[in-house]
Amino acid sequence: HNDRSTMLHLAAKSSDPEAMMTFFLPKSNVMARDNSGATPLHAAVESERLKAIAILVSNKADINAQDGRGRTPFLISVSKGNLSISNLLADNGARLEIPDLEGSTPL
After folding, report:
1. Domain coordinates of the chain in residue numbers?
2. For 10-66, what is each residue's pLDDT tens digit?
3. Separation between Cα atoms, residue 62 and residue 49, nearest integer Å
4. Which of 13, 20, 77, 89 could form a disulfide with 47 if both were Cys (CB 3.0 to 4.6 A apart)?
């Protein structure tokens, strides 16, 4: 893909992440980055795919990874107002104080 998205990035955004994750996850790098610096976990949070997020977190995705704008998955979930995703990330060790490149923090 021209934006360097991997099949796992696409699966993370899918409306049926479990099927795609089952196929792509074993062969993929959960820390692969696209042109914006986003990991598959960022993509799943951006698309608000709770099941995909849970799968990625359970497969050791870096929950505190920052994209090219310095945003963590937790910061993205808070900006979207998605409490379920924010809670899942916080319960799995998301650091709540990491600022983005503009100095904004999630809380």
Report:
1. 7-91
2. 878 877 777 766 766 777 788 889 999 999 999 999 999 999 999 899 989 999 999
3. 17
4. 13
